[in-house]
Design brief:
The chain is mostly helical. Helices cover 61% and strands 0% of the residues. The two termini are 31 Å apart.
């Protein structure tokens, strides 16, 4: 639950944030469109990708929290959670290539 609150707060801050490359950027800026080490992570290529990435993380976390309450057995719940982890690990990169 705390992780979800942190990601919600990060989503709010990122939606209000500016790129460090802008002249008005202060100490709290994001490395969107940066060159160098930050560019190797796909979700830092643009503000839109970063926000979509955070929304996907929140959706996966909420589904993972709710899934055990809607399954008939514990093994199905853990299987579903394992499936969500697999989708997260493989799907985020596929989503990034579709969006960008």
């Amino acid at each position: 639950m705390a992780l979800m609150l942190l990601w919600l707060f990060e989503l709010y801050q990122a939606s209000q944030g500016v790129a460090c490359s802008e002249t008005i950027a202060g100490a709290k800026c994001y490395e969107w469109g940066a060159s160098g080490p930050g560019l190797e992570f796909w979700h830092y290529r643009s503000k839109e990708l970063y926000l979509v990435h955070l929304v996907i993380l929140l959706e996966m976390l909420m589904i993972g929290l709710v899934l055990p309450f809607f399954t008939a057995s514990a093994s199905a719940a853990f299987g579903g959670l394992a499936l969500l982890v697999w989708i997260y690990l493989s799907g985020n990169y596929a989503i990034a290539t579709l969006i960008y």
